[in-house]
Design a protein that fits this description.
Elements: E1 4-13, E2 29-41, E3 44-51, H1 60-73, H2 89-96, H3 107-126, H4 131-138, E4 147-153, H5 163-175, E5 181-184, H6 190-201, E6 209-212, H7 219-229, E7 236-238, H8 246-255, E8 260-262, H9 269-278, E9 287-288, H10 298-310, H11 325-334, E10 339-341, E11 362-364, H12 377-384
Parallel strand pairs: 4-5, 4-10, 5-6, 6-7, 7-8, 8-9
Antiparallel strand pairs: 1-2, 2-3, 4-11
Helix pairs in contact: 1-3, 2-3, 4-11, 5-6, 7-8, 9-10
């Protein structure tokens, strides 16, 4: 039976000169981990790798002092599937969150999510299967999607960036094979942001353009932007207000007929449940963007998906934040509505396999065992350096 013999943790910079309406990314970093097993392949121990999504800083202190020790100190059999063949991240979740009081989700949910990713990578590698197929088989999900819709998130604010630069960026995304793009709003005046939106609408039609305020607006501003954006028929209007201001979101949903999107800064099943209860979310048009890595990992995300189904939500209305290969596997296995992408940003953890090609807005999944991070050369070298 497989055993965990070591857990290594580190931090990698994913900094950038870009900014959204709320934060700059000049000092952004993320946590990386390697979970080493006693299963040998080609003369080396099989190792699962994990990292945190962009937007939350590294959580190394929590990983080192609380979460990793709980895994290493646990009864080894308690971490395995019922047949004892491989690791079961669903069973590992209560181990990693043991002795933690409820509520206050945030950085600890990131720490757990990083290790959850590594455990899923390792579990699938032990059975020599790509993660999306392993998930479908282990969780009786049926056949996975053969490809996943991906959209290109960009349009950030950066020093000296002109409207022509913004248009060129969006044309580059379309040239890469994306059909839907997203841009930032809220970091300038409404008048200036509308000029920016209209410049992008000269490149792509409204149905294939989304805008993201990153939680910047108060109610009056969110409504003003909604009224101004409504005629454009946008793909969606994302995170207009503070992620926990459900009353603001519910009021906007009453007045803005187009699709709204939110959830990337909610980190647990109770958070997701409160979103449905109080934020006026509409299952026929709105999108839920909860990030599996930032919200205690895929094990918790599976619980969130079950709750959403009970409340009449289709998995196709879920398009996770994150923009990396782990989320791509999750989207294919759970048959979600798609996956975010950040072409050229948040490297080395952001992005997909080195040979990934977007065709008509879709990506096919890699056939490598696990997540397939071995096919992201720069990232894999950094991850391997954790356990030389």
């Amino acid at each position: 039976m497989p055993r965990i013999i070591a857990i290594h943790e580190g931090t990698v910079p994913i900094s950038s000169s870009i900014a959204n309406a709320y934060i700059g990314f000049g000092r952004m970093d993320c946590s990386i981990v390697a979970v080493v097993s006693d299963v040998m392949r080609n003369g080396r121990p099989l190792t699962g790798y994990g990292f945190s999504s962009n937007g939350r800083y590294s959580a190394g202190e929590i990983i080192r002092r609380r979460v990793a020790p709980r895994l290493l100190e646990a009864d080894p059999d308690s971490l395995l599937t019922d047949d004892g063949v491989t690791f079961d991240p669903v069973k590992a979740l209560p181990v990693m969150t043991g002795d933690e009081k409820p509520g206050g989700h945030g950085e600890r949910s990131v720490a757990v999510g990083v290790l959850d990713m590594a455990l899923h990578d390792l579990a699938a590698k032990i059975e020599d299967k790509p993660l999306y197929r392993w998930l479908c088989e282990r969780h009786a999900l049926g056949e996975p999607d053969g490809s996943v819709f991906v959209y290109a998130a960009g349009g950030y604010y950066s020093p000296g960036k002109t409207l022509k630069d913004l248009q060129a960026e969006m044309r580059r995304f379309l040239g890469l094979g994306y059909t839907t793009v997203k841009m930032k709003i809220g970091g300038a005046s409404l008048r200036e942001d509308l000029r920016r939106v209209e410049a992008v609408l000269d490149v792509v039609d409204g149905a294939h353009l989304a805008v993201d305020a990153n939680g910047r607006f108060d109610l009056a501003t969110a409504l003003a932007y909604g009224a101004a954006l409504e005629p454009y028929g946008l793909a969606w209007y994302e995170e207009p207000g503070d992620p926990l201001d459900h009353a603001l979101h519910a009021t906007l949903a009453e007045r803005y007929p187009g699709p709204l999107a939110t959830g990337e800064n909610l980190f647990s099943l109770p958070d997701a449940r409160n979103l449905l209860r109080y934020a006026g979310m509409r299952p026929d048009r709105d999108l839920i963007q909860i990030d599996p890595v930032l919200s205690y990992g895929l094990a918790e995300y599976l619980r969130i998906q079950a709750m959403l189904r009970r409340h009449g939500w289709s998995a196709r209305r879920c398009v996770p934040h994150g923009g990396h290969q782990f989320a791509l596997h999750i989207a294919a296995a759970l048959k979600l509505g798609g996956n975010e992408s950040y072409p050229g940003e948040f490297e080395p953890t952001g992005g997909f396999a080195d040979d990934a090609v977007v065709e008509d807005g879709h990506l096919r999944l890699p056939d490598l065992p696990g997540i397939g991070l071995e096919n992201q050369t720069k990232l894999h070298k950094i991850l391997q350096s954790l356990h030389p």
